[in-house]
């Protein structure tokens, strides 16, 4: 048993009964155990200690089980504990689980991506999952999941971020949101804003987080619009975007709003805390 399996089992034991633990130790095909897990375990939300959170993060940086249900945790435990010595056979078993999965099973499968063996095998599956319209599945891929930022190619990553805005997801929970910002994504975000403006709709102020590091003449026009036509939250977002940039015309514009500069410098205003209208 690996260190990761050991920690997961300790967490499971602390959140379930001896009967469930006895069932978990039985030998059976993975697909059988995977399918019946909720009926055996229930779906109560688990509790995790700070030490366990730290241990998991040490073994798999960014990976967490906080807020999970017990059946989700046990399914992930089963996945990482399955016989993976034969790469092709292991891929076949997990791929078949994906193909036959209902929503709860998909949530577990995508949640397990950061800790599954052979991470290169699951890139296409992850990219495919982004096209889902099931909120819980999208959140399993997007929220507190280090796999996409580490393994997705840029086009798929950009699709994930744009889908997060389409579906009103909290991008503060997306690991790597700043580290994987790129100019192509900044253009996509700007184009998306123009489409919404043309339709008379508002933009998500947090989307300018992905534009700030790449401010230029084109993007500066968007930032000026936020100051001139937007609500207070839009001006705050514009100020934060400018604070990420060295583009001097934008810096000069921000100088006209000393109260926003002070709020950023005093850590009273950040992307993580940006709220309001």
Gist?
60% of the residues lie in helices and 0% in strands.
Give a verbal description of the structure.
InterPro entries: EboA_dom. This is EboA domain-containing protein. The protein is built from 16 helices and no strands. By secondary structure, the chain is mostly helical. Helix content is 60%, strand content 0%. It has helices spanning 3-14, 18-24, 30-41, 50-59, 70-81, 87-100, 103-112, 123-129, 135-142, 147-151, 154-166, 183-198, 217-229, 232-243, 248-254, 258-265. It has two domains: 3-173, no CATH class; 200-265, no CATH class.
List the helices and strands and how they pair.
Layout: H1 3-14, H2 18-24, H3 30-41, H4 50-59, H5 70-81, H6 87-100, H7 103-112, H8 123-129, H9 135-142, H10 147-151, H11 154-166, H12 183-198, H13 217-229, H14 232-243, H15 248-254, H16 258-265
Question: Main attributes?
Answer:
EboA domain-containing protein, 60% helix, 2 domains, 277 residues, 0% strand, mainly alpha
Order of helices and strands: HHHHHHHHHHHHHHHH
Q: pLDDT below 50 for ≥5 consecutive residues: which ranges?
A: none
Output the structural class. Answer: mainly alpha
Strand content of the residues, in percent? under 5%
Q: Helix proportion of residues, in percent?
A: 55-70%
Mean pLDDT level: 95
What is the distance, rounded to the nearest whole angstrom, between the alpha carbons of the first and last residues? 51 Å
Gyration radius (Cα, Å) is 22 Å
Shape estimate:
elongated
Number of helical segments with 4 or more residues: 16
Number of domains: 2
Number of strands: 0
Largest sheet: none
Protein name: EboA domain-containing protein
């Amino acid at each position: 048993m690996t260190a990761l399996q050991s920690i997961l089992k300790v967490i499971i034991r602390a959140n379930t009964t001896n009967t469930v633990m006895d069932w978990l130790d039985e030998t059976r095909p993975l697909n059988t155990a995977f399918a019946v897990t909720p009926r055996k375990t229930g779906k109560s939300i688990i509790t995790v200690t700070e030490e366990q959170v730290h241990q998991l993060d040490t073994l798999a940086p960014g990976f967490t089980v906080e807020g999970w249900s017990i059946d989700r945790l046990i399914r992930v435990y089963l996945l990482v504990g399955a016989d993976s010595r034969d790469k092709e056979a292991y891929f076949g078993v997990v791929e078949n689980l994906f193909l036959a999965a209902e929503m709860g099973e998909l949530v577990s499968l995508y949640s397990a991506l950061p800790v599954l063996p052979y991470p290169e095998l699951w890139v296409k599956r992850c990219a495919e999952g982004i096209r889902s319209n099931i909120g819980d599945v999208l959140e399993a891929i997007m929220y507190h999941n280090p796999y996409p930022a580490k393994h997705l190619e840029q086009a798929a990553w950009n699709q994930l971020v744009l889908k997060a805005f389409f579906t009103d997801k909290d991008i503060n929970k997306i690991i790597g949101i700043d580290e994987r910002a790129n100019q192509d994504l900044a253009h996509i975000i700007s184009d998306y804003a123009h489409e919404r403006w043309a339709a008379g709709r508002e933009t998500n102020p947090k989307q300018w987080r992905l534009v700030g590091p790449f401010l230029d003449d084109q993007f500066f026009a968007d930032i000026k619009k936020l100051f001139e036509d937007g609500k207070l939250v839009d001006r705050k977002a514009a100020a934060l975007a400018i604070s990420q940039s060295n583009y001097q015309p934008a810096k000069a514009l921000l100088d006209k709003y000393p109260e926003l500069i002070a709020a950023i410098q005093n850590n009273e205003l950040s992307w993580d805390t940006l709220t309001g209208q």
